[in-house]
Amino acid sequence: MATPTQFHHPTQDLTDPCVHCGFCLSTCASYRILGTETDSPRGRIHFLKAAAADELSLADVADHFDSCLGCYACVTACPSGVRYDQLIAQVRPQLNALPVRSPWQRLLRQALFALLPYPGRLRWLLAPLRCYGGSWLQTVARRSRLTRLFGPEIGAMERLLPPLSAASFRDDLPLLTPAQGQRRARVGLVLGCVQRLFEPEVNAAVVRVLAANGVEVVIPPRQGCCGAVTDHQGESAHTRALAKDLVATFAGAVGVGRPAGAEPLDVVLVAASGCGHTLKQYYRILETDTPWTEAGRPFAGGVKDVQEFLAELGLSAPLQPLAPHPLRAVIHDPCHMLHGQGIADAPRQLLAAIPGLTLTSPLDAGVCCGSAGIYNIVQPEIASQLGEEKCADLLATGAQLCVSANVGCTLQLRQGFQAMATPLPVFHPMQVLDCSIRGVGLAQLSPGLAPPVPAADG
């Protein structure tokens, strides 16, 4: 058991600004479900101050920090400017060093960190399940609740498992995709580890959209995980190792398809918001590793979300309607996009350019859907309730499709919509733009999109 003297209190400038006003409570996902002050941002800050004063041990209140999703909605809501995101980033590594979790919880986390950041390992594990995902067997297993016999965490993983295509088991995007027409930019693309397996069609759509808008796309081979999965859980050493590998991979790829060293990348792009948030934090992640500090800061400064980049560059490819009738799309803002990176206008700006498409947002747009990295696996009960609430909120808009730019959110929402009478298809914004540019219509991705119905509020 850790003693109070082992606790390294976050710098006072992170905790002192909190005046316990309570503005964070309505946006805090864990507080909305649990309803306890101890599971709110200001409650956790109170615990940190008490630990700094040797009034309690961090081990005594670890469960209340584990209930935090790390969605950063409280950062956006706080009128005092409390940087809870930086605070929780300092606390989580210390939680991981304490014997506060059960042997099963520790084993589960170790297994997830040993698998999720490594596409090769994950593909090997998922290969036997290729005929299971999306099949009648999966339907029977779920309806009979057979999967719940293996425990809530394993059951949660099974419910998140999507159908797996052949593309999930290979990286077949070209190393270099030339721009169509006059070249306007040259970019590198981070494929992501989970996204390339569970949503390979998103990366394919990203490449097509970029090329159609005059962007040359470089995809360095053998690129690994950016470290988002481990970073959001405070696994600092593991995250640094993954970050170094990715920086090195891209540093050696600036000459892909051209004479070595002839031309640098204008920017490094990513299409998953959780990855984007971590990539932009490489200056922090690598700041204590002297040989890599100089490489981490410029790399982080050169990363952009693909929507952020295209909104700044401007679309040059003509856009066509997605269906023969008007469509209404509801945008789900991933937490690491909205609160972590401060990006809200870019996806709306891009999608608003599509003829016949109307955009809307849910009432509680800033509240987490419950995905939060591995949260929906390690805290499945809370995550499930948050997912149900989010899906109901999205459906109340009367939209026929949902748009979200994070693979974790997409899997969480698709799971939540399965229980709804009128489930919404969920697409990445780049998939929607891709269909509009190619003029194929969204029916290719989701047959039977119906005309819009009035929203619940009229």
Question: How would you summarize this macromolecular structure in one to three sentences?
Answer:
With 458 residues, the protein is α/β, with parallel strands linked by helices.
Largest sheet: 5 strands, mixed
Side by side, the strands of the main sheet go 1-3-2-4-5
Tell me the domain tally.
4
Low-confidence stretches: 1-5
- What is the number of beta strands? 9
Using the CA coordinates, give the radius of gyration.
22 Å
Total of helices: 24
Structural class: alpha/beta
What distance lies between the first and last C-alpha atoms, to the nearest angstrom? 56 Å
Beta fraction of the residues?
A: 5-15%
Global geometry:
globular
Can you offer a commentary on this structure?
With 458 residues, the protein is α/β, with parallel strands linked by helices. The chain has 4 domains: 4-96, Alpha-helical ferredoxin (Fumarate Reductase Iron-sulfur Protein, Chain B, domain 2); 103-168, no CATH class; 171-313; 327-444, Rossmann fold (3-Layer(aba) Sandwich). It has 24 helices and 9 strands. The strands form 2 sheets. Strands 1-3-2-4-5 form a 5-stranded mixed β-sheet. The chain has a 4-stranded parallel β-sheet with strand order 7-6-8-9, sandwiched between helices. Strand 8, helix 23 and strand 9 form a beta-alpha-beta unit. The longest helix has 16 residues, at 236-251. The N and C termini lie far apart (56 Å). The model is unreliable at 1-5 (pLDDT under 50).
